[in-house]
Amino acid sequence: MPEKVKKLYEGKAKVVYETEEPDKLLLYFKDTTTAFDGVKKAELKGKGSLNNTISSLIFEILHRYGIKTHYIQKLSDNEMLVWKAERFPVEVVVRNFAAGSVVKRLGFKEGQRFKEPLVEFFYKSDELHDPLICESHIELMELAPTETIPLMKETALKVNEILSGFFKEHGITLVDFKLEFGKLPDGSVGIVDEISPDSMRLWDSETGEKLDKDRFRFDLGDLLEGYREILKRIS
Ligand code: C5P
């Protein structure tokens, strides 16, 4: 079993460790939950394990469809082994229904279904509070190689198709989600970071109940109860 060799970086939700193999990293999923640029923060025992388990399950589904990601395997409750990647400071968001920042920014009604999935790019910068950007900014600021822009967009839409169908089968609506990409050791571009209820909006298809991190952001109910319900339905 791969061992942690050196702590490389500690983020809001994860700790990244080097392993004995230079091209593999170990991610430790923390119980810390933050929102609004870290202004709201809590320790929720068991959250790290839920996110690691849900994220691993999703990466395994994506691999079955031939989507490239950094995921190698789930090592323990809170640990995931991944390929080391050169991360692009870009967040790719796909939206099927209006919620969150797009409601505030453009005045859509929450829950309004989009005719086509909407793809948005954000510049990953704590200092600038992750501003919305367009493809020209990615090129101009060299945030990611130009040729990867259409690839990120196509991959995000394909992931949306796969995951929308998957969650629908389990009575859950995939409202929106965020992906990050990076260059993997073999030179290809793949999905990095996590894909969990911290980075997706998931609503109960029948009742509309929010099962994701919005429960924590807006005090809508017990966060872990929502995450456990998601895991119960999809596993
Ligand atoms: O806040 P906004 O509506 O733009 O978020 C869109 C989607 O991206 C949501 O599912 C949210 O959880 C996710 N997101 C994220 N990390 C961010 C910003 C948004 O995972 N820094």
From TrEMBL:
It catalyses: 5-amino-1-(5-phospho-D-ribosyl)imidazole-4-carboxylate + L-aspartate + ATP = (2S)-2-[5-amino-1-(5-phospho-beta-D-ribosyl)imidazole-4-carboxamido]succinate + ADP + phosphate + 2 H(+). Pathway: Purine metabolism; IMP biosynthesis via de novo pathway; 5-amino-1-(5-phospho-D-ribosyl)imidazole-4-carboxamide from 5-amino-1-(5-phospho-D-ribosyl)imidazole-4-carboxylate: step 1/2. Keywords: ATP-binding, Ligase, Nucleotide-binding, Purine biosynthesis. The keyword Repeat does not apply. Its EC number is 6.3.2.6. CDD domains: SAICAR_synt_PurC (cd01415). Residues 7-233 form the SAICAR synthetase/ADE2 N-terminal domain. GO terms for biological process: 'de novo' IMP biosynthetic process; cobalamin biosynthetic process. SUPFAM superfamilies: SAICAR synthase-like. InterPro entries: SAICAR_synt/ADE2_N, SAICAR_synt_PurC, SAICAR_synth, SAICAR_synthetase, SAICAR_synthetase_CS. Belongs to the SAICAR synthetase family. This is Phosphoribosylaminoimidazole-succinocarboxamide synthase. It comes from Hydrogenivirga caldilitoris.
